[in-house]
Structure formats: structure tokens, C-alpha cells
Amino acid sequence: MDKLTTRQRAIYDIIIKAPAPVPTNEIEKRVSATYDISRDTLLRDLKILTSKGLIKAVGLGPATAYCLDSTLLEPIDPESYFSLNQDERKLIIEPNSELFDKLERTDLLPSISGLNKKLREYRKKVANLPIDLHKRELERFTIDFAWKSSAIEGNTYSHIETETLLKFRQKAEGHSEAEAIMIINHKATFDMVRENLANFKVLNLADVIDIHKSLTMGLNIQPDIRRHGVRVGGTNYLPIDNPFSLRENLFRAIEVVNKKTNPIEKALIASAMIIYLQPFNDGNKRTARMVANAILMAHNVTPISYRNTDDGLYKKAVLLLDEQHSLFLYRKMFLDSLEFSVENYEI
Length: 347
Fold this sequence. Notes:
Blueprint: H1 6-16, E1 22-23, H2 24-31, H3 39-51, E2 55-58, E3 65-68, H4 78-81, H5 96-105, H6 113-127, H7 131-152, H8 159-168, H9 177-195, H10 205-216, H11 243-259, H12 263-277, H13 284-298, H14 311-324, H15 328-344
Antiparallel strand pairs: 1-3, 2-3
Helix pairs in contact: 5-11, 6-15, 7-8, 7-9, 9-10, 9-13, 10-13, 11-12, 12-13, 14-15
């Protein structure tokens, strides 16, 4: 979207937010309220948006209307969708190649000018931050991230217990050894990523596997691409069960990530596709969150702690991605979490 004019962004906003295809006359009426635009100029803008694969025309002549060219960002009401149990929900079945093609041609970040402004202000704010304050902020972020990312996985350590564990290596009573290991692994992996940020300017499979291995060390989880099928709780969605096909699809997903230029979009796609493909026996969502942060930090964007993220919303966003190939809710959750981090950390 960075290469679109503000007027073209406004036109795209009108179309993406509409519940049905928007007639040309309606688009002209609404955009004219803000911009001095002729009919010919509007049609040229619509042609540009169409050529970029952002929208598509429906109908012919005076009856032409415009809507999204991809179902990836099509609004879905989670309350209505999840009022059905998993056996009643109909899954979208399409070849993964089509999903990757959609991801490649679709701009997933329409209208984030507000967030971009906050990011610019954030970079100015942290540019000259004293070393001691940076270290303190980094420690605070690491604790928040290790706690929340683990909590999303069902870890029962409280925030205070997580802080005590990471600062003083003091394990909390009444919790399993595995819970402590999970949290400690988050910090160790985050530190490893920070020391090797240059690796994540361009994503590769080896680094994804290394992150997974570090996050799951000592937890009896196979540290490589899984060789058997897995099931996902709460859904009838079945990820690929063939290890060769799985690796091929993961390579394709990484290829899409590397073709994108916006680091936020890169991180969004990388995390979403790791979750969708489930390339490992366990630890996929943890790996997805860490890979996303690695990409963000490699491009000088603040990482996401997920501290403000509702666990139930996160799960629903993942299920909509798995079942409907919809990034609508996942994207919103991701961007809201990123904006929270921009506003609450100086690292």
C-alpha cells in the first residue's frame, strides 16, 4: 500500500469496509466528499487497484461494482461463526498453492498510516535512549513476552512468578518443571534472536527450525519438521501430513514472506503460515510468535509482547485462519498487539 496515493487508499478503504460490492457511482460520491476527483481519474484509480490484485470488478458498464479480490481479509463475525460447533462449521478446502498466490498478490496492510506514524515517533524516542534505560526496558519486555506467550500455551505461571524465575532463577511452587523450562526457553531464544538479527532480514527455513529447537529444548518435542500427521484442538482442520509436502509448502510460505517489502507484512505472513501449516509436532504458535518478532526487530520495528492479547481472541483468530483461510481477525489481533507494544515499550 505504500505505493498508493492517499486518494487511492481512501478508495480502497471504502471498498474493503463495505459488506457488499460498491457501485462505481457510490464510490465516486463518497470519495468526492474529500477529494476533487473526476470520473476519469476515479476509473484510473480503480484500474490501478484492480491491477495490483487488491480489488475486482463485478458486473459490466454502469452496473459495475467493486469488492475485495481476495477472501483473505473478508470480514467474518467471530460470534456468529463460533456459535456453531466444530462439526457444523464448513471448512474452506483449496490447494495451498492458491492460498500462497493470494498472499503474494494481496496487500494485507491497508490503512495503517496511524500505526506507521506511531512507529516513526517510536524510533525517534528510542534513538537516544540511555543504555541503562534500554537494558531495563528490554528486561521488562522479555518478561512480559515470555509470560504471555507461555500463558497462551496454557502455562499457569503468573507474571510475578515469571519475573522471579527469569531474574533470580527461582522456580515457583505448585508448577511443573516443564512450565519453568518453557518460560526460560523463551528468554534464551529471544536473546539468541537479538544476537543474530541480520539472519532475519531474509527468512530461511534453517533459522525457523533453530528457533523452534531453542523454544522446545528439554520438553521432549522433536526438533525438526514433523514426520506424521497432527490434529488441532477445537477444529476439524487437518494440516498436511506428508513431511516432504510440508517442507515444500513451508519453503513456499517463506518465499512469499521474502517477496514482501513491508516488515510488518512479512512478520504477519510468517507467523500466520507457521501456525497454519503446523510444521512441528508441537510448539508451532510459540515459534510463529518468535519468528515474527525476529523479523520485526531485524527491520527496526518494535517486537510484540502480546501482553494485551486476549487468549480467547487469539485462538479464534487462529481457527478462522485454519478453517476459512481468513486473516481478517488474525491481522486485527496482530496489529492491535503491535500497536500496544509501540505505545508501551522503548527497546
